[in-house]
Specification:
43% helix; alpha/beta; 472 residues
């Protein structure tokens, strides 16, 4: 490494600060990749956030550096993500030397026919695919948030069916955007539910999330129905224009205390939430307090609402299509996956995680009418609950502490942004969640950015706790 990169601090580095270093010839993309690879080598044995590093990352970074040199000579302006390292959740397909396994040995060796659409967009923008972020088998835990929180990468991309962007972002004191379903193509991503799946950025700042979002949104013939329906929400000029420090001014925000605030009564998180409400008011937001969402308790119980049943039914169809589109795979059907898990119970930790949902999905036959009724019921819960509350009170967003409101967004395909808000008595992070109706990302970005700039609650994580160790 040259002396330049030794003076550049990757801790909490943003896309803006990195691009500034690039433009001032204080840093190259190759040097930045090396810094992150060293960070991964040091911390990943403890964190296990990165499942695989792209062996071509340095070569991609070198090409980015050459492109930057050529562009400066020719007066060509490069995009915000050019030369920026990105980690992808290991459910996002890449047609390169990286695997795409959803954390399952059953898919080790599978080969995708082409990049996921979001990966194609990232490559076109000049981003460096650094590797794949870890998860336990089939989506349960995301390393995308851990890797960003620990400064193993600049930004990451996650996927979300129910909670896999918002929840890990909240728990790791980073920013996560769950876009409106269909705003970002899901093509080439290992699916769970076509009704609920979405892809979104996980970063340390709202602005970095927005820069990524601007690159990955848009219609896609490979995910045509959903993306064409939602592409009408994309604002002309993109989302970065809504990074407004005064974005809270005049915004009407709804507070639903039961069950979202009442469930944490007496905690530091509850006290901090009230403190932040005062900040929102001071910054010009109009708070409408003590609102209610009809049938909130039912919505928050995915078994009672029918969400789980609808997801399981959708999964059987979606995973079958995904497996059929693979160029090659050791498993061809959901039944093959179940058999693999049974045969390799210790390897797959089947006894620990189980596969009841897989078996239920495989055994679902001729239940289309029942599933249609469940989906109709979920839609009615949305219309009579969250949507009615938002519309009748003319709200720009709902504000809730932590992650309890996640099912509201999940079953309706609504967008949400979680922003670091503080730490509890044990040092565990929690966030503020801003959620809105479909297509309201511009308002949510203004609100989230205004809140972030007013509070700056995220702190650099510490890695010197005596109980931390590397398993042999």
């Amino acid at each position: 490494m040259s002396s330049n990169d030794q003076h550049f601090q990757i801790q909490e580095a943003t896309i803006t600060s990195i691009q500034q270093a690039f433009s001032q010839n204080k840093l190259t993309s190759t040097q930045l990749v090396d810094l992150y690879l060293n960070q991964i080598e040091t911390l990943n044995p403890i964190l296990r956030a990165v499942v695989e590093v792209n062996p071509d990352a340095r070569d991609i970074a070198k090409r980015a550096d050459q492109d930057r040199h050529n562009s400066s000579e020719n007066g060509i302006k490069l995009g915000a993500l050019h030369g920026i390292p990105v980690l992808l959740k290991d459910t996002i397909g890449t047609n390169d030397k990286l695997g795409t396994t959803a954390g399952s040995y059953a898919l080790v060796g599978s080969k995708v026919a082409r990049d996921a659409t979001v990966v194609e967009k990232l490559r076109l923008a000049g981003a460096v695919i650094l590797g794949k972020a870890s998860l336990s088998e089939w989506y349960k835990i995301s390393g995308s948030a851990i890797s960003v929180a620990a400064n193993l990468v600049t930004v990451s991309l996650g996927t979300d069916t129910h909670s896999s962007i918002i929840s890990p972002s909240d728990h790791n004191s980073v920013v996560g955007i769950r876009p409106t379903v269909g705003l970002v193509s899901r093509a080439g991503v290992i699916p769970i539910s076509s009704r609920q799946d979405t892809v979104g950025p996980i970063c340390r700042t709202v602005s970095d999330c927005v820069f990524v979002l601007d690159v990955i949104v848009g219609p896609d013939t490979r995910d045509e129905e959903a993306t064409l329906r939602s592409s009408r929400y994309i604002p002309r000029g993109g989302y970065a224009q809504f990074l407004n420090k005064d974005g809270l001014k005049g915004k009407k925000l709804g507070i639903v205390r039961h069950p979202f605030v009442s469930s944490i009564h007496g905690s530091i998180a509850a006290e901090t939430f009230e403190y932040h409400l005062d900040i929102l008011r001071e910054r010009g937001a109009i708070l409408v307090d003590n609102l209610e969402i009809l049938n909130a308790e039912e919505i928050l119980n995915p078994h009672q609402s029918g969400e789980i049943t609808a997801m399981i039914a959708d999964f059987k169809h979606s995973i079958g299509n995904y497996l059929n589109e693979l160029e090659s795979s050791p498993v061809k059907t959901l039944a093959d996956i179940i058999a693999f898990n049974e045969k390799n119970a210790e390897l797959e930790k089947t006894n620990e995680y189980g596969q009841d949902d897989f078996i239920k999905a495989e055994n679902m036959q001729g239940n289309d009418e029942e599933i249609d009724k469940i989906v109709e019921h979920l839609d009615n819960l949305n219309k009579e609950g969250f949507e009615k509350m938002m519309e009748e009170n003319e709200l720009d967003a709902m504000v809730t502490p932590g992650t309890k409101a996640i099912p509201i967004m999940a079953i309706g395909g609504y967008p949400g942004i979680t922003v670091p808000a503080g730490y509890d008595e044990h040092g565990i992070p929690f966030g503020m969640l801003f959620s809105g109706l479909k297509g309201t990302e511009p308002k949510l970005i203004e609100i989230a950015y205004g809140f972030e700039q007013a509070t700056l609650a995220r702190e650099l994580p510490l890695f010197n706790a005596p109980e931390w160790h590397v398993d042999n």
